[in-house]
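Entry 12.
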Amino acid sequence: ETNSPRAPSTSTGVTVGDMQEYLAIDGDDDVLKSLIEYAEEDAIGSIDSKVDISVYRALPIFNQAVRTLVDFNYYNRGALAGQQIAYPKSYQYMLNKIRWKVGQING
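Predicted 3D structure (tokens):
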């Protein structure tokens, strides 16, 4: 299963380089690193924080969810207070799929 042509090929998760390519930008390494860490923590905290991060990172849909939230937060920096939605609907949909997949893995 793939969810993006830019899905990381290993289970190391989304990297700054992946996000720079995905967003078609150069630079902002520290900002992207922070947003990636936040997106991973948010997704894991919304599903099951007892599951090791390597399990999540092995799922292409998890990596796509991280990219989706990083994209949303990157382009809405400074404007989030005025947003009517806290998360993109596609991100919420992906979290539901991940919840199901992680439940299947952990029985």
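Annotation: Helices lie at 16-23, 29-47, 53-57, 60-75, 89-105. The CA atoms of residues 76 and 83 lie 9 Å apart.
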